[in-house]
Amino acid sequence: GDQTGPAKTGGEQWGSRIGVILAVAGSAVGLGNFLRFPGQAASNGGGAFLLPYFISLLVLGIPLCWAEWTMGRFGGLKGFNSAPGIFSAVCRSLKARYLAVPALLIPLVIYMYYVVIEAWCLAYAFKYLTGDLMLGDNPDAYGKFFGDFVGSGEDGAILGGTSSLIVFVGITFVINFVLIYRGVSKGIETFCRIAIPMMVVCSLLVLARVLTLPAEKVSEGLGFMWNPDFSKLADAKTWLAASGQIFFSLSVGFGVIINYASYLKKKDDVVLSGLTACGMNEFFEVCLGGLITLPAAFIFLGAAAGDQGTFGLGFTALPNVFAQMPGGQFFGFLWFFMLFLAAITSSLSMLQPVIAFFEEGFGMARPASVSLLGIITLAGSMFVIWFSAGLKALDTMDFWVGTVLIFILAMVQSVIYGWIFGVKRGVEESSHGASFKIPMVVHYMLKFVVPLYLGVIFVLFLYQAL
Ligand code: PHE
C-alpha cells in the first residue's frame, strides 16, 4: 500500500448518483453564471468573447474537470477527502500535499466575498417580497438603493450603510454552516436535490417573462451585450478572462470537485457525471445568464452598464426590468430568490474542502472544524464588508484569486495528472464504472496542451501588463 499518512476520519459518502450530480452542478451553477459571465462577456469583446470562451471550455474546462473527478475518487478510495491528502495519494509522496495549498486557499478566500453577494441576493428577494424594491421607473433610484445598502454610497464603506446588510449576512452564514454541519449527504446533497429543481422552475419563469417583453427592446439589449468586438481577441487579457470564467463557472481548478469526487464509491461513473454537470452549467450560463440577465439590463442602462462592477450590475440594472414588467414584484422576488439558492449550493462547496482538511489534517471533530471555519470566514467577510472601499476591492480580489491563483492550481493539477499520475493510470482509473471512456486525446491534452495553453496565455498576459 501507499505510505501516505493518516487514514481518513470522516468516511462520508454521497447517497445517490443523481444526488452527486446535482451537488456538483449546484457547485458549478451560481453567481458566476448569472452575474459574472455576462459581465465578463460584456467587457471582453461581447459576442467575440464566445470564441475564447468555448475554446477554453473544450481545451481546459472539460479535460480538467474529468481529471479532478478521476483523481478525487482515486484519493477518496485511498481514504482521503482533502486536497492535500488526495495529492499525496496521487503522487505517492507526502511532500505533494504542499502543492495543494491553493486548493484550500482559493475556496476559503472566494467564500469570504461570495457569501456577501449571496446575502445581497437574499436581501433583494426579501425586499421584493415587502415591496421595498418597487421604486418605479427610475434607474438612479436603484443605483442609490444599492449603494446605500452595500455601503458604497456617499459615506463610503462604513457601517452606517450596512447595518441591515449585516443581518442578511448573518442569516446566510447560519444557513451555510447548518448545512455543512449536517454533512455531505444529509446537508449538501439533500439541499441540492431540492434547490436545483426550484432554480430551474424559477429561472424558466423569469426567462419566459423577459422574452415576452416588447421584441425591439429585447433585441436591442442583446445587441448591446453581444455586439462582437473582434479587436479584443488580440488582447491576452481576453483569453485569460475567458479561461478564468470557465474555471470559476465550472468550479474547476479550485480543489472543489476533487473534494466532492472523493466521496464517490468505486463503481460510480465519473465520466458521464462530470460531463452532465458541465452540460447543466453551460445551459444555465449561456442560455440563462447570457441571454436574459444582462441583455435585459443593457436595455435600461446601455453602455453605463459596464461601470457597475462585475457583480453589482445584476443588482442595479435588473430591478429596472422588473419595474417595467407586469407582475414585476413577483418576478423580482423569484429572480433574486433563485440567485440565492444558486449561490448557497456553490458556497457550500467552498466550505466542504476546508472542513475536510481540518478533520483529516488536524484530526478535528465536526463541531470544532465547523466552528473554526465559521470564525475564520466570518472575520474575512466582515473585512470585505467594512474595509473594502466600494466594489472595486471585490473586483480586485476576484481577479487575483478568482483568475490568477486558479490558473496556477489548474496548471499544477494538469501536470500532476499528466506526468505523475500518468496517462496509463488515468485511463484505468477513469474507466471504472464509466458508461463511456474519456477520449484518448483528452488524456494527452491534459499532459501537453493544457499546461502549455495555460502557460502561454499567462506569460503573454504578464508581458502585456508590464
Ligand atoms: N461555480 C460557482 C459559480 O459559478 C462559483 C464557485 C467557485 C463555486 C468556486 C465553487 C468553488 O458561481
Automatic annotation (TrEMBL):
Keywords: Membrane, Transmembrane, Transmembrane helix, Transport
Membrane topology note: Multi-pass membrane protein
Transmembrane segments: 14-35, 47-69, 103-126, 157-179, 191-211, 239-262, 283-305, 333-358, 370-387, 399-423, 444-466
Keyword Secreted appears in the UniProt entry: no
GO CC field: membrane
Record carries keyword Zinc: no
Location within or outside the cell: Membrane
Protein's name according to its UniProt entry: Sodium:neurotransmitter symporter family protein
Organism listed in the record: Stieleria bergensis
Residue window of the full protein shown: 70 to 535 of 602
